[in-house]
Write a structure and sequence with these properties.
Lytic polysaccharide monooxygenase; 224 residues; 3-stranded antiparallel beta sheet; signal; 6-stranded mixed beta sheet; 11% helix; Coagulation Factor XIII, Chain A, domain 1
């Protein structure tokens, strides 16, 4: 009986490891509910996400909310306005790279403003298991407050999918103010969303025109 129990535990561990290694996820700052050492424990009532590298949806289906998990961490990583976050990613299957966006929200994901975009070259040339980092600067005029930091990825090759993770941070900046930019594009995220086709070839259409059409947005945070 003990032998069978041990085998079951090993099998479960293998499944969890292989699941996490697939696709890609935000690793630092800690994405919500990831199992990496040093990341906070999930909030009460929530569980570690052993499938954190999986997409949140495809062009035909929405599988999870935009942040993948909606309940924020109580513990937040603190950054200063103007500071550059050296983001890192757990890479399993990079699917030929693709388009990435990074965005901030001050109202737990109701409204977002994009602070960085990489068209086509995000994760390009990266192999599974290889370290990958991207510097992302918080706007110098970012107001102080609790914020959500979001990473969004549309893969170049494979199923038409959307990936996203969110990290809970706190920004030390000016007391109140606004950030202007564009709202994120959530392509390949359920029926009715913009569909970005595969673009593995150097001259393949990559849907970048849809990013040029993102809507302008201003996020305002009231002074304390």
């Amino acid at each position: 009986m003990l032998f069978k129990t041990a085998l079951s535990a090993i099998a479960m561990a293998v499944v969890c490891m292989s699941t996490v290694q697939a696709h890609v996820s935000l690793q630092s700052p800690c994405a919500r509910y990831r199992s990496t050492a040093g990341c906070p424990a999930p909030p009460p009532g929530q569980s570690v996400d052993y499938d954190i590298n999986s997409p949140i949806g495809t062009k035909d289906n929405i599988g999870a909310p935009i942040c993948k998990h909606t309940v924020p961490y109580a513990k937040r990583t603190v950054y200063n306005a103007g500071q550059t976050i050296q983001t890192s990613y757990a890479v399993g299957a990079p699917h030929g790279g693709g388009h990435c966006q990074w965005a901030l929200s001050y109202d737990n994901g109701k409204t977002w403003v994009v602070i960085k975009t990489i068209i086509r070259d995000c994760l390009k040339g990266v192999s599974g298991g290889q370290a990958y980092t991207v510097p992302v600067q918080i706007p110098a005029n970012a107001p102080s407050g609790k914020a959500t930091f979001q990473w969004i990825w549309n893969n170049a090759i494979g199923n038409r999918e959307l990936y996203s993770n969110c990290a809970d941070i706190e920004i030390k900046g000016k007391n109140g103010g606004s950030i202007k930019g564009v709202a994120p594009l959530y392509a390949n995220y359920g029926r009715g969303s913009v569909v970005i086709p595969e673009f593995g070839g150097a001259n393949s259409p990559d849907g970048r025109e849809h990013f040029d059409r993102r809507k302008p947005i201003t996020i305002t945070v009231k002074a304390a």
